[in-house]
Design goal:
The chain is an all-alpha fold. The chain has helices at about 1-15, 25-45, 55-75. The chain has one domain (about 1-75). The chain is elongated and about 45 Å long.
Length: about 80
């Protein structure tokens, strides 16, 4: 599940890479996506035998996703996304 979330965040970064007003968010989203993948790899390989590995991995992944969510909320704050009728 977290791999799909990381790829979705990466797609958001890719969409914003050429828009100057959103470039800082593109970089932030790319970092968050990369961290989600890297943390997953480290935990699933290096910390495999640790009894609390899954719990801590899920906490870290959820915290990274929350950081993305907050950043995206700030990015879109005040924008009207409702279609005109």
């Amino acid at each position: 599940m977290f791999l799909f979330l990381a790829s979705g965040i990466g797609f958001n970064a890719w969409e914003r890479r050429d828009k100057p007003e959103h470039r800082r968010y593109a970089g932030l989203y790319a970092v968050i996506s990369g961290l989600m993948v890297a943390v997953g790899i480290v935990f699933l390989t290096a910390l495999r035998g640790w009894s609390h590995m899954v719990l801590v991995l899920e906490i870290v992944e959820i915290a990274l996703f929350a950081a993305f969510w907050v950043a995206q909320t700030v990015e879109h704050w005040g924008q009207d996304h409702l279609p005109a009728v």
